[in-house]
Predict the 3D structure of the following.
Amino acid sequence: MSSNYSEYFVMQSTDFAYWGSDATDKQAEEFNNRLAEMLEREFPGVTVEPGLENRVYGPDDNVCEEIGNWICNHYPEACTQGGKS
């Protein structure tokens, strides 16, 4: 496992539907911000930006998959107040 993820870029969907049909735009923005903070704690150096889709880019496909799997497993935590991971 790498300790510096500065070569990796995570694009987070800004579509509130990603967070559930009941989410408001404001809630979706809060959830995205929490998820970005969680990602930056878990993968130091990673760049997280809003985008039209959820996607991970970087030089190692296995690490991209690891980050993507982490997002899938932890994004519900971003919907809670703490978002602590």
User: Anything to note?
Assistant: Residues 9-78 form one domain. The chain has one domain: 9-78. The first strand starts at residue 9 and ends at 13.
